[in-house]
Design brief:
- A two-stranded antiparallel ribbon has the order 1-2.
- The protein contains twelve helices and two strands; from the N terminus they run ααααααααααββαα.
- The model has no long low-confidence stretch (mean pLDDT 95).
- Helix 3 crosses helix 8 and helix 8 packs antiparallel against helix 9.
- It has one domain.
- The chain is globular.
- It is an all-alpha fold.
- Converts cobyric acid to cobinamide by the addition of aminopropanol on the F carboxylic group.
Length: 332
């Protein structure tokens, strides 16, 4: 039975990737992450409304925001664990793999980022900067209205590098440790951070715990990411030695504790400079920012994803199986 379970756990990864490639994201009305977002929005508004009538407004928001972050993450993880267990014990192996793969797919995205970036690049290729800026505004928080073509490309490459950790590596990393409940735990925390983990006056207290949890939970995957990106750069003929140099020098330039790691690796490997105006600069402008550079960054992350799955994720799952971890987790 232990060997059968580990085969199923590994199979779930490839079925989930197949779903992502063929079908992409599910409709918003049934997307678990969208539903989680609605819950976050509902309770955040409730907390903010209640805090208006309290003298200890800041402490109240911080405490209630922490309860929201921890409570929602725990609840989602437990619900997903229960659904997984029921599909396994009541419906059998095939349904377990299908249900788990479907849930796992909603926690990561390879095709969606690729699609968004290519939409922007198509408009740049047509010299349609206004439409490129509008498309870019869908995936970044910065003001895109006056960005030049080079700044748009820079933002795209930054998104590709950061999403390799946030959108692929981290959810699959936690899947490798805790199966689907682990990947959904990660996605819940990441969604909390993306919605309320800001430092502005409205969010800085209610989203404090969400931001902290996201920083903590991404710390290990972000610092593992250079290994897979550098090997990918070796395979694809990029300047991997410079990527190491730039990462050591610039990874702390970003306000985010984690985002600077994959972005500085990408900047160094492509011999370009990535810049968010008034926030950070990563790398040196040895070569120009071009559409081809952006396409290369996508290629690098795709190869790195395969390297991660075969050289790290599957071996970790098998090692944990040796110690009967999956037997304990699934109660078999």
């Amino acid at each position: 039975m232990p060997l059968e379970i580990v085969t199923e756990i590994i199979s779930i990864i490839f079925v989930a990737i197949l779903i992502d490639i063929i079908l992409g994201e599910p409709p918003n009305r049934i997307h678990p992450v969208v539903m989680i977002g609605r819950i976050i929005n509902f309770f955040t508004k409730m907390i903010k409304n209640a805090s208006r009538y309290r003298k200890d407004k800041d402490n109240f928001e911080k405490v209630m925001g922490s309860i929201l972050a921890i409570g929602l993450t725990a609840t989602v993880s437990l619900v997903v664990y229960y659904v997984s267990m029921q599909s396994l014990f009541l419906l059998g192996t095939i349904f377990f793999v299908i249900v788990s793969a479907t849930l796992l797919k909603t926690t990561f995205s390879i095709r969606a980022m690729d699609h968004h970036i290519k939409e922007i690049l198509v408009e740049l290729d047509r010299n349609n900067l206004d439409e490129a800026r509008r498309n870019l505004s869908k995936i970044v928080s910065r003001d895109t209205q006056n960005l030049s073509e080079a700044r748009i490309i820079s933002a795209c490459i930054e998104c590709v590098a950061e999403s390799f950790v946030d959108g692929i590596l981290s959810p699959l990393f936690y899947y490798g440790l805790l199966s689907v409940p682990g990947s959904m735990m990660y996605r819940t925390i990441n969604t909390l951070d993306s919605m309320i983990g800001y430092k502005d006056e409205y969010h800085n207290k209610v989203g404090w715990m969400s931001a902290k949890l996201d920083t903590i939970i991404n710390a290990i995957p972000a610092r593992l990411s250079p290994v897979f990106l550098i090997v990918s750069m070796m395979v694809s003929g990029q300047d991997w030695k410079n990527s190491i140099k730039i990462c050591k020098r610039d990874y702390q330039n970003t306000e985010s504790f984690n985002a600077g790691v994959p972005m500085s690796i990408m900047a160094g490997g492509l011999n370009i400079q990535l810049e968010k105006i008034d926030h950070y600069k990563l790398g040196d402008m040895k070569e120009q920012l071009t559409i081809q550079k952006c396409k290369t960054s996508i290629k690098i992350t795709k190869i790195a994803t395969l390297i991660f799955i075969f050289s790290f994720l599957i071996p970790i799952i098998m090692i944990l199986n040796y110690f009967d971890w999956w037997t304990i987790l699934f109660g078999i």
